[in-house]
From TrEMBL:
It holds the Pfam family HATPase_c. It is an enzyme of class 2 (transferase). This is histidine kinase. Keywords: Kinase, Membrane, Phosphoprotein, Transferase, Transmembrane, Transmembrane helix, Two-component regulatory system. SMART domains: HAMP, HATPase_c, HisKA. Its EC number is 2.7.13.3. Residues 145-199 form the HAMP domain. The keyword Transmembrane applies.
Length: 407
């Protein structure tokens, strides 16, 4: 469309320019002819010096259109109406000027050369426009194919990865810093994250199956032992009571696994007041602290953060339970601006083991005799990542503190 409009514009400008050039010639000729008009014995004529060149025609007419004098070509149609100014006929370009005494001077020139030139130009522009459109379409196709070929390669590679499940593959990286390079980099980064997520899920599933297998095996063994021979009611009661503890541990383990799995769910942040959440959790675990011979002290300052209420409560429960299980003496729960901290006595875990303790089912040295699944701290770490918060340990002389700092 742009090419056709450009060709039309060129044609219009060329016609205007050529017509203007012809009009200038007619006007200059009329000016010369006007100075060459003579009246000899009552007869109007042009002086002998007026010799029009080429195919110019000069006529002197009366008001009635009667031819009084002529110079140059004699091809002009005298029946043409007298209208001052420029006009065009099928064969001529005409300039008519009114003179004193009711006379008219008419200068004309055949326009066939101009018409032929414009027709030739029109044909050239039309053919050129069609050719340019064809060339532009071909070039556009070639360029589009060349530009989209890497995209097609990325799509085929991604399709192959999805079909085969070989998430270790990567799309060919494009060189440079253009859009294609950014696309391949983004896709490969996404595949890196996908591979990491899948590997973590596979490892988590293997460890979870192993952790569930042991208590289930023990529970099945006790059931088989109980049912291998008839027993009285008291024996059955003792056996079922012992198995109830195992079932409770399995329920806690399953709930922790579900809570850890839900950390990949869509994020739904809302305002949460840390001080009231901490007070509610301490009240819930007050009996646990009392049985352990410990006290939980509170140092609360109102603090609002963007998080998830259930997740905040579970994180505080896990931190406080760990402090009561593995710490000594009283426990301090402190809430300040955008932060909650749980402080307990004792040396805390080995500093070199801290990164390992953030993985599911990992437990610190010397804690095998303490009830637990190894999911509490990893769940807190997963929730912190989910909220873009920080889980910060701090070791001091005779004390250990874990802080959950919100952005």
């Amino acid at each position: 469309m742009t090419t056709l409009l450009g060709a039309a514009l060129v044609y219009v400008l060329a016609r205007s320019s050529l017509t203007s050039s012809l009009d200038v010639t007619l006007r200059e000729t009329a000016s010369v002819a006007q100075g060459s008009i003579e009246n000899r014995n009552g007869q109007w004529t042009f002086s002998a010096e007026l010799t029009p060149t080429g195919d110019l025609s000069i006529e002197l007419l009366s008001a009635a259109g009667k031819l009084l004098a002529r110079a140059g070509q004699e091809e002009h149609d005298q029946a043409l109406a007298l209208h001052p100014g420029f006009m065009s006929t099928s064969e001529h370009r005409v300039l008519t000027l009114p003179l004193d005494g009711g006379l008219y001077l008419r200068v004309s020139r055949p326009s066939d050369t101009l018409v032929e030139l414009l027709e030739t130009l029109g044909r050239i522009l039309s053919a050129g426009s069609v050719l340019m459109v064809v060339v532009a379409c071909g070039a556009g196709y070639v360029l589009a194919d060349r530009a989209l070929r890497p995209v097609d390669a990325v799509a085929r590679t991604a399709e192959g990865i999805a079909r085969r499940g070989t998430y270790q593959e990567r799309v060919p990286a494009a060189s440079g810093h253009d859009e294609m390079a950014r696309l391949t980099t983004t896709v490969n980064d996404m595949l890196d994250q996908l591979e990491g997520t899948i590997e973590r899920e596979k490892g988590f599933a293997r460890i979870a199956a192993h952790e569930l297998r042991t208590p289930l095996t023990v529970l099945k063994g006790r059931l088989d032992l109980t049912l291998e021979r008839p027993r009285d009611a008291a024996d059955y009661h003792r056996a079922l009571s012992a198995m109830q503890g195992r079932v409770d541990a399995l329920v806690i383990l399953s709930e922790s696994l579900l809570a850890l799995a839900r950390t990949d769910a869509p994020l739904q942040l809302q305002p949460v007041e840390l001080a009231s959440s901490a007070a509610a959790v301490v009240e819930t675990l007050d009996e646990v602290a009392h049985r352990a011979g410990q006290r939980v002290q509170l140092d609360l300052t109102e603090s609002w953060v963007q998080a998830e209420p259930d997740g905040v409560n579970r994180a505080l429960v896990n931190l406080l339970e760990n402090a009561l299980k593995y710490g000594t003496g009283d426990v301090l729960v402190r809430v300040s601006a955008g932060e909650v901290a749980v402080r307990s006595g004792g040396p805390g875990p080995d500093q070199t083991h801290w990164p390992r303790l953030l993985e599911p089912f990992e437990r610190g040295a010397g804690t095998q005799g303490t009830a637990g699944s190894g999911l509490g701290l990893p769940l807190v770490a997963a929730l912190a990542r989910r909220w873009r918060a920080e889980l910060l340990p701090q070791w001091e002389d005779g004390a250990f503190e874990v802080r959950l700092r919100f952005p």
